[in-house]
Design a protein that fits this description.
13% strand; binds adenosine-5'-diphosphate; five-stranded parallel beta sheet; single chain; alpha/beta; globular; Rossmann fold
């Protein structure tokens, strides 16, 4: 299986690139942010819980997030591989993912991180907020909290997979096609050498 973690700060382009990557590699896309927004839209208990955290730009607690992710993976036994978008965002999530995949006889193939400067992220997210209807993209203070949370809680996940020889940094500024080209070059290299 090709199990990719698409990594990077909020606004780095993970969702956009994930759409292109699933078309190319024919693998399942799981975005924990999209899953939470779906639950929120349906006012489920999980959605209401997630909303408390998301509206402040904080992470939803690990036990909630990990359970939801596992359910989604278990619902797709036919998947030939998975792009994890927005997960894992903490070391606890990364360890849980490794154990979970191990129990299925598979593992994380690689983590590809999109590198984008903070000020560019803020501009992109405020721009997206004008059309996305996402409350967390309409408030600069919430955007800055999300970037801070990423630095403190999420960047250690890059190092965690680097210790396993799996992390790669990809410059995330340029056209969508340029960045897609960089990502596919990196992924194809890993794919052919694995
Ligand atoms: P972005 O990367 O632009 O912030 P996402 O859609 O990935 O957007 O995430 C939106 C929000 O959903 C996050 O700010 C967080 O509150 C919540 N969330 C998403 N994924 C996770 C996760 N793996 N762990 C905890 N919270 C998460």
């Amino acid at each position: 299986m090709l199990n990719l973690i698409l990594f990077g700060p909020p606004g780095s382009g993970k969702g956009t690139q994930a759409d292109n990557l699933i078309a190319r590699y024919q693998i399942l896309h799981i975005s924990t942010g999209d899953l939470f927004r779906y639950e929120m839209g349906n006012d489920t208990p999980l959605g209401l819980k997630a909303k408390e955290y998301m509206s402040r730009g904080e992470l939803v607690p690990d036990e909630v997030t990990i359970g939801m992710l596992q359910n989604k993976v278990n619902a797709h036994p036919e998947a030939r591989g998975i792009i994890f978008d927005g997960f894992p965002r903490t070391i606890a999530q990364a360890k849980a993912l490794d154990e979970f995949l191990d129990s299925k006889g598979t593992s994380v193939t690689a983590l590809v991180a999109l590198d984008v400067p903070d000020e560019e992220l803020v501009v992109r997210l405020l721009g997206r907020g004008k059309t996305s209807g996402r409350a967390d993209d309409n408030d600069e203070a919430v955007i800055r909290t999300r970037i801070d949370v990423y630095k403190k809680e999420t960047t250690p996940v890059f190092d965690y997979y680097q210790d396993q020889g799996k992390s790669q940094m990809i410059p995330g500024v340029g056209t969508i096609d340029e960045i897609f080209g960089r990502l596919t070059n990196a992924i194809d290299d890993i794919y052919t050498s694995s």
